[in-house]
Structure formats: C-alpha cells, structure tokens
Amino acid sequence: MRILFATGGTAGHINPALAVASYIRDNYKDAEILFVGTADHMEARLVPNAGFDFKTINISGFRRSFSPKAIVHNVKTVCRLVTSKNQSKKIIKEFKPDVAVGFGGYVSGPVLQEAVSQKIPTCIHEQNAFPGITNKTLAKEVDRVMLTVEDAGKHLEPKNPVTVTGLPVRGELLRANKDMARAQLGIPDDKFLVLSFGGSLGAKPLNDAMYDILLDSAETGKYYHIHSVGTNGGEFLEKFEKEGFVNGRKGTVEVRQYIDNMDVCMAAADVVIGRAGASSLSEIEAMGKASILIPSPYVAENHQYHNAMALVNRGAGYVLEEKDLTSKALADMIDELLSNKAQLRQVEENAKNMSITDARERIASIIISLANGK
Fold first, then answer.
1. For residues 196 and 21, what is the distance between their CA atoms, to the nearest angstrom?
2. Is residue 88 a contact partner of residue 56, using CB atoms and an 8 Å limit?
3. Residue 81: pLDDT band by 50, 70, 90 thresholds?
4. 294 and 116 in contact (C-beta within 8 Å)?
C-alpha cells in the first residue's frame, strides 16, 4: 500500500499530516509513505526528521499585491506551475501511489491535480474554518474532503459529501492532568491560572497589551499568570527585568521567552489567551479550556477570525480582534471570565464538546479505505 502526502509551508499544515502518517506507519506495516513538499520551507526539515521519505517540487504561491516585486514573483509562480506539474507527474509515475492525500498549502495543488488526472484515489484535509484557495479548488475534484470543523463546508463545492474528522492533537496534551499540572507548577488550589502566548515567535500586539496586565498581576497577586513573549520578544523580557522581574518571575507572574512544557501549562490553566490557529484551537478544545482568542489579521483569507468564531458561535470561547485590543479591554475580559465560575465551567464544557480526540484515526481510516479501492 503506497500513500503519497502533499503538504507544506507552515507547521499547521505539516504537523497534522505527520501525525496521521506516523499513525499509519505504526499500525499498517505494509504502508509505504512518501511526502512531497518544497525545498525552501519547513517541511524540508520536519518530514525527514520524522523519518519519512521526501521529494520536492518547485512551486510558490501568488502574492496579492501590485508592487513591482510582487509582480515579478507572480510571473515566476506562473512558470513554476508548469514546472511543478511535470515534477508531480514524474514523482507519481515513479512512486505509483494507491492514494494521494493533501493537507493544504499551495504545494498540494499540482500534486493532487496530477493524481486526479491519473485517476488515483485522492482526498484532502482542511484545517481551518475558512478554507484556503488550494483546497477550495481541489474540493471540486478529489474523492473525499475531510474537515476540522463543520463550518468550513459552507465555503466549499465538493464533488462528494464532506466528512468532519477534527484535527490531530499531540498525545501528551490528551494525557495531561490538571491537578498534577497545577501541583507541578506550584499553583495553589484557590487561585486561577491564566496562560497567554502569541505563538512560537510571539505577537507584539499581544505583548504590548499584556504588559500592564502582567505588571498589575505581579503587584496584586489576584491570579497566577504565565506569559510567553516569543522568540522575537526579547525586548519585552528586558522591560520586565527593569520592573523587578528576576529570571522572568515576580509575585504570581512568570514571563518566558518560549513555553516548552505546553502540555503542563495548558492543563493547569483556567483561561488561555492567544491566536486562533487551527492546531491551537484543537488543543484548547481537547483540553476543555476557556479561551480569549485574538485572531491574527495577517493570515490568508482572515481564516483565524473564522476559526475563532467557530468557538464563539458555540459558546466555547471569546474573541477580541486585534483592532480592538488594549490592556483594559483584555483585562476586563479576563476579569469577567474569572469572576463567574459557573460561566467559566460552561465555556469549558462547550469547548470540550467540540473536541474530536480520535481525529488521527478517523483521517487514517479514510485514507486506507481509498487506498483499498473503497
């Protein structure tokens, strides 16, 4: 059984694909797996590191700008579309897959379209509540379309009915225990813990808004707070040091550059504050956490806003758009959530009800079924 995965660009596309591929490798010993991506994005590092064979095609996305630089880039992209089609044809001819799977990113476009043209069974997975252009196009052609959330379906015109599978969540998060996590972090039973982060690189607007909140919490001790400034947020660590933080700590507040024990911190938290990427939201749902979501307005199709609203519309979270983000607005939302335990628990329950914890198995089942001609 030969399975071809095509994905790339961001960790949000690559990691779910790797989770499913790893599950198949562990449970279907006859499976041969090949990934296709680009040489200049993170899949070129992540996929081989995970132990999978990897081939590349030369493809890029279009830039939505009329600047001279963007125009030159887009002309090159048109040329690469032709090249990538021939490269995809060669890879498929050599590997002879029984099924081709796309997990998003423009690299999946030419690979899946070539598989369709060769009548190879195909399927795609869409992580976000608002699909990207590549998956919108592919949905009309592939045999099966899998979704993280049902909301994405209304933006697609699939050839066949869609299937909601959820998005794979790391096993250590599913196994985490709140009481044990709080004990490990030294959080008293009678205190709330707020966890906030803007992704691995950090988000300056969130760091700016959080600054006064963290200083106030450090003085009043009204709740515990762990905040990550991100790898690009070194200037904020210096600002906190000038305010009397020692090794990132003062009172009930801890400021870190990066959270490397997210399973522990999220398990212990009562409120989670951050962006609205699909992977983060699936983790929040799986752990049943109340959240205040600040969608990044800088992503394609504003998809993080749609991701966040999928929770908001189900009473499973709150959204604060970046254009409305201030220290006071964010502090008021935190205080409102923590002041009403019944409301907090209801939001947690609603988030948990959205979770699909066997997403990996559901997605793998569909892939294997297609590979077996079913």
1. 31
2. no
3. low
4. no
36 close to 86: Cβ distance less than 8 angstroms: no
Q: What does the block give as tokens for 372?
A: 């077996």
Q: Who contacts 191 (Cβ-Cβ below 8 Å, separation ≥6)?
A: 223, 224, 252
Token representation of residue 121: 């069974």
Which tokens hold the place of 102? 């796309």
Please check whether residue 202 is in contact with residue 228, taking contact to mean a CB–CB distance below 8 angstroms: yes
The sheet with strand 224-228 has its strands ordered as 249-250, 253-256, 224-228, 193-197, 271-274, 290-293, 318-319
Average pLDDT, stretch 243-256? Answer: 96
Please tell me the distance from the alpha carbon of residue 57 to that of residue 62, in angstroms, as a whole number: 16
Torsions phi, psi of 135, nearest 5? -70, -30
Tokens of 227: 């905040």
Structure tokens at 280: 């983060």
Strand 193-197, strand 163-164: pairing: unpaired
Can you tell me the distance from the alpha carbon of 127 to that of 277, in angstroms, rounded to the nearest whole number?
A: 9
For the chain, what is the total number of helices (H) and then of strands (E)? 15, 14
CA 367/CA 362 separation, integer angstroms: 9
Residues of the chain with pLDDT > 90: what percent?
A: 80
Q: 289 near 181, Cβ under 8 Å?
A: no
DSSP for 103-144, please give it: -SSTTHHHHHHHHHHTT--EEEEE-SSS--HHHHHHTTTSSE
Residues 6 or more apart in contact with residue 357 via CB below 8 angstroms: 166, 169, 174, 286
Query: Which residues, in sequence order, are CB contacts of 355 under 8 Å at separation 6+?
Result: 166, 169, 282, 285, 286, 288
**pTM listed for this prediction:** 0.85
- CA-nearest of 258, 279, 266, 278 to 173 is 266
